[in-house]
Amino acid sequence: MYRVAVIKGDGIGPEVIDAAIEVVNAVTGRISFEYYEGGVETFKRHGVPVLEEDLEEIRKSDAVLFGATTTPFDLPGYRSLILTLRRELGLYANLRVIPDFNDGREIVIVRENSEGLYSGIGSVVEGRAVDVRLITREGAERIARFAAGEALRRGTFLTFVHKANVLIGDRFFRRVVFDVAGEYGVDVKEAIVDSFTIKLVRDPWSHGVILSENLFGDILSDLATVHTSLGVVPSGNYGEDIALFEPVHGSAPDIAGRGIANPIGAILSASMMLDYLGLDGSPVREATRRYVLRGNLTPDMGGTATTGEVTRGIISELIGAIEEELWVEEIRVGRIPTDISRVG
Ligand code: NAD
Ligand code: IPM
Ligand code: MN
Fold it and tell me: Of 210, 227, 244, which marks where a domain is finished?
């Protein structure tokens, strides 16, 4: 059994995570889910966004599944739960994959997840507020390696998006990216972030693996969803020891509690988690795509379906595929080589 720590969060977080867990349970019985609380309420009661003893247990899990939490703008001493988890679990690489269900194409963004403008270093002193945009050699190298590895795996190049015409940090980052990519034999294209936003909207599919600093990656990944919906985009946050999977969207307070949140971002995040665990997330991705091409979708995608209807629709596609292929769970999602299924 694999142990997966689950933090549903608030707003639509619990709605979409419940959907993702239903889908996972439809493909494998090998995951035991353990539930933890966190966020503003925990902070108000205990002074921390997540309890230290819970964090200890979460660290021992095989992976984490996370929904979303609301972060108030003005709660003194509070740091958002997801930023706390990324830091505490050493999750330095954020892989965000924006799907095109019609053609099977993807926009792939690797967002540096631990430094840049999210360094957490800063101060307000005598009428001056400072946020330090930290780029270290170690941080730049490890994210460049992650992105180059992803480009190699996908048989493509890197597009490094920066503001090296202005920022000292991005000049330094850029050098490291070119050096590491050279070592990996991966081609690098580059673009300046402001004009790149236009290319990303007009011609989203031709940038290989996009690599950028933390805040630029945050903004670019939401922007990249304009041809689809923010609600369908999954992500994996990877570190040396553990990974956390979460939809890219937030807690969406404007639609929370109405049963209309799009569960696909959370479901596809769970499929990335299956891959990470050494199981196989591809049946979930294929079932999702088949459902999107013919099913009724949630309102963010122009439909009238509820979260539950989409989730059940994806599960029926999965079950259909299982029956059609005489798909045996032990073989399809197990660690047993697939060849065994062909024996006899
Ligand atoms: P958001 O992603 O929550 O919502 C942006 C828009 O997209 C809203 O109109 C929302 O209704 C829509 N949307 C998002 N997800 C959807 C889904 N699954 N189905 C249908 N529509 C969806 O961003 P925001 O409004 O800027 O932020 C709201 C709160 O979420 C803030 O407190 C923010 O800090 C938090 N947030 C949390 C996380 C996280 O915990 N990982 C991520 C992003 C934002
Ligand atoms: C995201 C979110 C978070 C971020 C917020 C909620 C701290 O926008 O995961 O994209 O900025 O990283
Ligand atoms: Mn964001």
Answer: 227
